[in-house]
Amino acid sequence: MEIVHVYEKPRRDFGRHCFFDNTEPQILIDSPPDPQKRTEYLIHSPRSISIQCTPSLSEHDTNTSSVALRDQGMNHLEGGWPKNVDISDPQSKRIHIKSLLQEKSYKTAIQRLSEPTERFIKQNVALDIYEEYFVPKDVANGSGASVPEDLPYEDEKIEAKMVSVFKDPSKVKRTACHLSWLPGDGSKLAVAFCDMNFSKTSVMEQNVDANFESYIWDINNPNRPEVTLVPQSPLCCLEFNPKDTNLLVGGCYNGVVNLFDVRSPDKSPIEESDIKLSHRDPIYDVRWIQSKNSTMFLTVSTDGLVNLWDTRQLAQPSETLTLELQEKNGIPPPINGTLGGFSLHYNAAHSAAKYMVGTEQGAIVACTRRKNKPTLIDRSYLAHHGPVYSVMRNPFLPKYFLSIGDWTAKVWEEETESPIISTKYHDCYLTSGCWSTSRPGVFFTTKADGSLDIWDLYHQQSYPSLTVSVSQQALHTIRLLNGQNLAVGGVDGSVTMIQLSDALSGFKHGERVTNNDELEAMRSMFERESKRENRILFKRKQMQHEKHTSGKEKGERPAHVEIEQFDAEFEDQIKEEASRGPSQEPDLPEQQGAEEETGQLEEEVANEKDSEEEDHEEAPSPNAAQDENIGEMNEDVDSEQVNGVEEPTADSTTQGDETNPADTTQLNDSGNRIQNTASQLFIEIDFAGAPEEMPKDGSVRLVVQPAKDSWTQRFRMENGFITNVVTGLRLTHGAQEQAFAVMLPAADNDNTQVWNIQGEGCLISAHDQLGLTTAANDAGSQVDIRPFDVNEPPKDCTWSVVSEASDDKVEEEGEQEQPTTEA
After folding, report:
1. Cβ-contact 522, 440 below 8 angstroms
2. CA 716, CA 303: separation in Å to the nearest integer?
3. Which of 251, 252, 248 lies closest to 240, judged by CA?
């Protein structure tokens, strides 16, 4: 709040003095009585009433001179010692102190001071001098208290105290659009100020000069900013460089990117992008990404572009992504046209190549950067009815992320189409939010009524654990420092720094305490909600599929069904449910076939162990897999193969080692399909031409698609090699900096072409022990290579080999069994 208001007015502006003279009375209006009007009124006895309550009024003008304040430091040195004491000698000081303690005057002074000191200590014990007598009402639930009484916080207090307020020094109060803490100690706070009133700005209303300045404050001195940044256009976002804290990057209202250096004597940017090659709309968010020299960053704007920039060449963006959803497997995108970016999130700890964009159409887009190829849009989520103001992954459980928009906050799981947790609809808009960096179940939301909600899912999921009334104006942005301190910016230009209590921040005596019980509880809660949401989605799509099928059987024209509801990941499950009959309860898509595949993998790996030893004794040549003729059989195939499947030897006693080479020998001449457990899709070579036209330079990638009768899905697995039966090319680990699989000619001594089976059907590369997985569970997703826990692998990291004979048998005989898997 502003303490002092200076009012200055020259004497000449008060006008001339007033003079009064005595004059005779003058009749201005004479209204004589009318006898005819007398009959229209009632005569009452006259009454006399005396009233004397006229207030005494006076006008006072006070002209006070303005006081200029400045900060001045003082250096305190040790003093007060007698001249005969050498302060540099500790022994001399101890002797002097010991002599003072023996004096009678010292003992008398201690006795005189002990009595009032004891009285003050007793008062402090009896009364809490820091007790808050006036607690603001809870805005969220209207219960009359800021903290619900039934929360099980034991004896710990949950509270949030406002430490300091940083105000916009400009005459016209602008919105605090974006906040950024100084990496490391967080001793400085950068604030981007911009007037976001597009229709009619306050600058136009007040007829004053526009102010484009943004500021950097020292958190210990909120009176005036430490550094002033002067761009050519107002800054909508501002971010510190995580490595070189002297550099900041800012996104302007006109779409230009500015680079600032606080060491520069000039307040203007040291570099800026070309306006012709920049964004065409305001830049709403900017994030530094992981790079060798920390010189690259991302910007997002409502013009539908996500630009990748490099500070070494800031004139134009290094890469541009258009936020436009594409058609997949004949399914049109849920939103047509270009999406305007509104928020951005990047977490290098989760993945150095993945980031998420919140759009003004209410969708969230997950993107993956690829080397020497355009950025891929992996998934999209229909999140909110309006712009997505904030999106952020959980720092402890990165597969779950938070989105803020319209009137709700939602928690998502990256493989689920709908949110797993949603807050209630509030009475006002939610403007921003973020996760806590010290507790996995706590997140914060700001609202348009000026209040801050703190949600603690570990204790309560129905309503916020604490609501803090920060301002009378709407809040716009929030940024957390270390889990204990956070800053909130409002539309009135004020930035409030808030300190959380130990119960909310997870700190004890100023140090962060890790609560493993809370982490496991939140993990279990999120997994439970994810499974329940997946089951609901499956049931809903099953009912729609049955309705669609029954309409066809009766010869009726089925009602219009949205085609995106028949996703590829549920088609196989629906067909299997119909073949089993209504008496069996269907499993979740991610649970289906997991136990059967595990048992078959262990049994068949044991059966094939002896066959592998026989092949080694005969010294087969793996180069035979390079034969490109479809009908030619490999010379090393054992004579015991029947219908393309090798019979296990009778004396085979090996019981599924922890690490086995992917050696199922040759299952049949036409090859077999490799199926992903999570998506039920098959590995396919992403090439549409003839086999002899397929390039052999590693430019052809692998994707997952539904089953089809094509040579691109036929592979032979032997001696740890996975070979295409037509082209003879082998599945190969890409270059070390590339996280995907390619097809290359056979090379016996190249361990990038050797794959081992570990755990429950995991294909692990012998090159660097990374596993084969998919970028997403959608058809057309790329086959990637990344690290994961083999003992508890994700479903999208496990595979099974499906023979063609098993496919034909299921199709012709209609058996109610899972497809035969080979490992």
Report:
1. yes
2. 48
3. 248
Would you report the helix, strand and coil content of the chain in percent, each value rounded to 5? 20, 30, 50
Q: What is the per-residue DSSP string for 307-364?
A: EEEETTBTTS-SEEEE-B---BTTBPPSS-SBPPEEEEEE-TTT-SSEEEEEETTSEE
What is the Cα 27 distance to its own chain's centre? 82
pLDDT at residue 518 is higher than 70: yes
Q: Which residue has the tokens 């319209």?
A: 406
Tens digits of residue pLDDT in 732-784: 887 654 467 888 888 877 778 888 888 778 888 887 778 888 877 788 888 88
3-state secondary structure of 181: strand
Find which of 4-8, 121-125, 562-566 is predicted with most confidence, using mean pLDDT.
121-125
Residue 631 has what pLDDT? 36
Vertex 449 angle, CA 446 and 455, to 5°: 35
Q: Would you give the distance in Å from CA 183 to the centre of its chain?
A: 18
Residue-level pLDDT at 671: 75
Amino acid 20: pLDDT: 75
Distance of CA 641 to the CA centre of its chain: 53
The whole-angstrom separation of Cα 503 and Cα 482 is 14
Q: Could you tell me which residue, 822 or 548, shows the higher pLDDT? A: 548
The candidate with the shortest Cα–Cα distance to 691, out of 713, 673, 719, is 713
Instruction: Work out the angle between the directed axes of helices 568-580 and 516-553 (0-180°, nearest 10).
Output: 70
Instruction: List alpha helices for 44-103, DSSP H.
Output: 90-101
DSSP state, residue 255: S
Residue 549 phi, psi (nearest 5): -70, -40
Q: How far apart are CA 664 and CA 259, in angstroms?
A: 58
Q: Hey, what are 502's tokens?
A: 């130990």
In sequence order, which residues have a C-beta less than 8 Å from that of residue 790 and are 6 or more positions away? 758, 759, 762, 764, 771
Q: Alpha-carbon distance 675 to 663, whole Å?
A: 16
For 513-580, give the secondary structure using H, E and C: CCCHHHHHHHHHHHHHHHHHHHHHHHHHHHHHHHHHHHHHHCCCCCCCCCHHHCCHHHHHHHHHHHHH
Instruction: Report whether pLDDT(443) > 90.
Output: yes
286: left (phi over 0), alpha (psi -120 to 50) or beta: beta
Residue 367: φ, ψ to 5°: -125, 155
DSSP for residue 782: B
Give the number of residues written for the chain.
823
Q: Which residue has the higher pLDDT, 823 or 373?
A: 373
Q: How far apart are CA 633 and CA 374, in angstroms?
A: 40
For range 476-499, the mean pLDDT: 90
- Mean pLDDT (the chain, rounded): 76
The structure tokens listed for 188 are: 């400085």
Which ranges constitute the DSSP H helices of 104-235?
Answer: 104-126, 202-206
Q: Give which of 423, 434, 438 is closest to 488, Cα–Cα.
A: 434
pLDDT confidence tier of residue 3, bands split at 50, 70 and 90 = low
Q: In what order do the strands lie in the sheet with 475-480?
A: 160-167, 494-500, 485-490, 475-480
Buried b (16+ CB within 10 A) or exposed e, 102-133: eeeeeeeeeeeeeeeeeeeeeeeeeeeeeeee
Report phi then psi at 244, rounded to 5.
-100, 95
601: number of Cβ within 10 Å = 24
pTM of structure: 0.51
Q: Which of 435, 794, 748, 823 is nearest to 590 (CA)?
A: 794
